[in-house]
Amino acid sequence: KVMVRGTNNAKGHFVLLLIAVCLVVFFLSQSFHGLLPHNNKGKDHHVTIVHGSTLDSREADATHFRAHHSSEDAYQARPQPRTWPESRTMHPVEQRPPHEFRAVPDHLSQPDRHRVQQVDEEEEEKEVRPAFRPIGRSQVRSASKPASESKRAPHKWSSDSDEHEVVSKPVVEASVTKPQAQALVRKYEPADVEEGCSTDDDCSGHGGCRDGKCVCVVFYTGDHCEKPIDLPLGLQRAPFKNFKSSFDGSMILNQKKVRTRKAITVHLPGKEKDPDHGFRTLADGKVLADLLPLLPEEDIMTSNFYETCAIVGSSGILLNYDDGPEIDAHDMVFRFNSAPTKGYEKHVGRKTTFRITNTQNWGFHESEKENLVIHFRAASSVKGLFWNGNQKNPWRLYAFDPDVVEYIAFGLDFMATSGLYGILLAMHRCARVDLYGFQVSTEHGTLYHYYDVCDIPANVERDSSEYLAVKALAEAGLVHLAEPCIIECHNGHAECAQCKRASHFKDVALPSDSKCDPNRKSVGHQEVPWRAERRRHRKP
């Protein structure tokens, strides 16, 4: 009995021990179940691609564990910057070579995700990274050229070369080509952020940079003054029916432009009956070679931008107002022919930037600082440039380039006056154009020219065409008439009188023209210099 009882006790102990061992094995298997690899075949696990991340074995195991033992709502993805595309989800990582990217499960908690995305600098240098990847403009600065030297930042991309330095490493898409990177940068840039400017060169040659923004000339618009304006309806008929607001040629004849030509030629419409049919060669061969050193190196007119410009005509109405200081306050002042300032400073000002003159008035200038600009439509213009170049103290004498001569000649249906030349050129170089002493009617009761009581119109028909052009520009708001009642007095006596009363027009006493020749004709006030010399030499 004793032996049987001992055997039974041993069997019970063995059973209990066996049960205990099984329990231990069971619990151990459950504990390691989460760390053992799973069969993911047939399942979709969405992951976000992270370039440049390094994971050791312990972090990888922990990452895998959390991916399968966390709820899908445990982590909310961080909001990405506006310049970046939203993180794209990709299907099983086995589909891509492991050296191109590392997979980070979407369900990591925020702290864990930050830790996973930390980059080991030493490991990063050993990785094979994609050739190009799209990044925002603010994330790159050029290693070869400081950002402060860049006038207008172009679209950029990052690369493994030394040309660019990556400042930040956000979560982005996998490898893309260079053109794709450029396209993505443009696509994901904020649409409401416009580039500014740092110099006038950023304004397409049709404006100036002021306080980081482009200020455009009258005939251009756009963030960088790159778009010619649409001409108003009033400028789409005579005398502007063929006129275009865009112009990118030269205004002043210069060496840089002439070097690209074999000859200086100009085509003038309306001259078809002339022997040359309007196609004139003004200089070629040796004449052109000799003329070249007499010209400025670059165009002195298109190289400058002016915010305000005063175009000062010669009408006697200037004597009715004391606008001299106001005129001088403009950045640039155009005057014409032999209109003087001395003795009339209170009314017309002292400042002259450019004086446009015809062949009848070449002999007139008031100071050595004046820039005289002559029309360039005939061989006599070339003679004038040579004559001036041979003087001991030559004037600042320039000629209009054929580019601008043909631009105006083909844009208008009449031969433009010097005054209209000045207006149109100013609209290509100035943000605001103010007209003083232009197109005053006889109804105003003023002199034709403020400086000569005996002057009379040289070409009434052409003056009438010029008035229509000035009126159209003023009514479109592209230029501004300084004196009141200009248009009203052209409309008739009654409307003129009413306007003058409303504007408190100040009448001034006119000098007597009793000593003027009743049969007088309009002539130039100064003889062309070389003609005067030739006349003196012919005297006995």
Automatic annotation (TrEMBL):
GO cellular component: a single term: Golgi membrane
Basic and acidic residues bias spans: 88-118, 148-167
Alphabetic keyword roster: Glycoprotein, Glycosyltransferase, Golgi apparatus, Membrane, Signal-anchor, Transferase, Transmembrane, Transmembrane helix
Primary localization class, coarse: Golgi
Residue stretches making up the EGF-like domain: 214-225
Family membership noted in the UniProt record: Belongs to the glycosyltransferase 29 family.
Protein name per UniProt: EGF-like domain-containing protein
Organism expressing this protein natively: Pyramimonas obovata
